[in-house]
Amino acid sequence: MAELMIRGLHKRFGPVEVLRGVNLQVSSGEFTVLVGPSGCGKSTLLRTIAGLEDIEKGTIEIDGKLVNDVRPRDRDIAMVFQNYALYPYMNVRDNIAFGLRARRTPEAETLRRVNAAAELLGIAGLLERFPRHLSGGQRQRVAIGRAIVRNPRLFLFDEPLSNLDAQLRDEMRSEIKRLHQELAATMIYVTHDQIEAMTLADRIVLMNSGQVEQVGAPLELYDRPATQFVAGFLGSPKINLLPGRLVANGSRLHFEAGDGTSLMLPSHMAAAAHSYSDRPVTLAIRPQHVTEALGIAGPDDVRLRSSIELVQPTGSRTYVTARLADSRVVAEADAHAVLRPGAAIDLAFDMSHAILIDPENGRVFACGIAG
Amino acid sequence: MTARRLALPLRYAAVIALTLFFIFPVYWLFIISFKTPEEIFHYPPVWYPKSIQFANYHVLFKDGDAFTVWNSLVLASISTFLAMVLGTMCAYSLARFKTGGENLAVWIISQRLMPPIAIIFPIFLLYVWLAWVDTYHGLIILYTAFSLPYVIWMMRGYIEEVPLELEESALVDGCTRWEVLWKVVFPMVRTGLFATAVFTFVFAWNDFIFALVLTRTEVTTYTVQVTHYFGGQSNFWAKIAAMSVLGTVPIFVVVATMQRFLVRGISMGAVKG
Hints:
The complex is a heterodimer of chains A (371) and B (273).
Chain A: E1 4-13, E2 16-26, E3 31-35, H1 42-50, E4 57-62, E5 65-66, E6 77-80, H2 92-102, H3 107-121, H4 136-148, E7 154-158, H5 166-183, E8 186-191, H6 194-200, E9 203-208, E10 211-216, H7 218-223, H8 228-233, E11 240-249, E12 252-257, E13 262-264, H9 267-273, E14 280-285, E15 290-292, E16 301-313, E17 317-324, E18 327-334, E19 344-350, E20 355-358, E21 363-367
Parallel strand pairs in A: 3-8, 3-9, 6-7, 7-8
Antiparallel strand pairs in A: 1-2, 1-4, 4-5, 9-10, 11-12, 11-14, 12-13, 14-20, 15-19, 16-17, 16-19, 17-18, 20-21
Chain B: H1 2-33, H2 37-41, H3 55-62, H4 67-97, H5 104-112, H6 116-130, H7 136-161, H8 164-173, H9 177-188, H10 190-206, H11 209-214, H12 222-227, H13 237-267
Helix pairs in contact in B: 1-13, 3-13, 4-7, 4-10, 5-7, 7-10, 8-9, 10-13
């Protein structure tokens, strides 16, 4: 278990600045997920922690010790790669034992630990096989086995599940989560998949163009994003973004879309948003907070009539794309609701979950859910 | 239908004819080495000797001429080993650390395109000055230097095919760069390594021009020795044939045992520049 501290990290590949002043702290035993779109620098950040990339500026400390110039082998970390990185000319046992043998662990000890790791991962029956005779999921288990057998201070995962099919990915995700609970090790995990990030992380580090956009617990980022980028990146289907302006009406504030459609904000948001009245803003609201209006309206519900453009059933839920002012809004409806394109629908906006964004700098200035 | 039924025997006939055409000189070489002088000059030719006799070989061993095959073996083996070790390290550096940028590799292989005859006399003068003429180390160094560009070029191609993640994983797992080269890169490029080594060996083994100019009596190779049997008055065909067979057999053995690697090695990644 180790604590990691990164300060002011810069890294460039030729003219491209991949990391632009990254600061990050990972506590001992924490599962941290680095997430962001392709090219945001998350893999590069992981590789600098491993010592596989040099850095131009900044410091990396593991357990308070500066490791900028420490070779990868001396950092006492283990890394699981996207393509498993198994040696094709070695069987599973030798693959898992590789790191221990490289560190000249006594052979009896090596074999004991290899067997224990294989047992933990349910691959004890595969030790004699060669990687080419394993399925994708089994290979990934071997790769993880190779990491845990060394009992390192820090685990790094570089998109380890992205080569697996959807079902196997779900399975391995639970496996990794279980492993973290059992080992209580410090783990840093890179993914571009927001579901993986949400389900695995104690803390999510969301990156965008070489910088950390926001750090926090998964639900914290989901409920109270700091920027439009964070709001848009997490959640599926994507959050609805509606351009408009804030209009003061007595003590209450209204969001007014381009065509004059008006949505009243809950009173607790008004205080934070008052300085933005009469200014253009972007309203962000997740599809699950825009629902088909049935029964009695809640206190912060705002109801609007719209027409259906698209219906997308997913089994558990059905997503309805409807027209609102000049924009499209995706709403969530009951899976068995009878909905047809072209028909009218009453949408209920749960404004207690609304998020207001300053379109000039993309920063969130008011959130329906208080911190 | 008939045309089709005829096609297969015709194809076989063509294949057999072609094979005979190429095999015959080799057969003739072998068979001469087992003939008596009378049989060699007999007309019409003796297609196969009545009895196999080893007198021609016996003479070569008795006079010490066969030692030149040993010389070739020593020179080719050691220079191949050195070229493979040095060349693979250079290739790794070019492939992984981009040493010399994009162009150094091409510049290195261009050395190989130079005709040996163009530089043999400056090398001869240099070797006279260094007193390296007619020494093992003189020829070994020259063969190594001449094989290096080829080894570097080939091995660079093979090494670039090794997934980088395998090496990085080994680095993180606790290996040094040298250990990575030894434990990861070598096993991964084994096939290419063998194929390249065979070609390097054959180059040194078959060399004639360097050995001709740079040897006298001590380290004469078998290729040079064969020329000694061509006389102004007469040619010693029996000795020529026996010596040539002695020079051919090791290559046969090498290629036959390495065939598996050769085919795979040549078809694998080697074409990539």
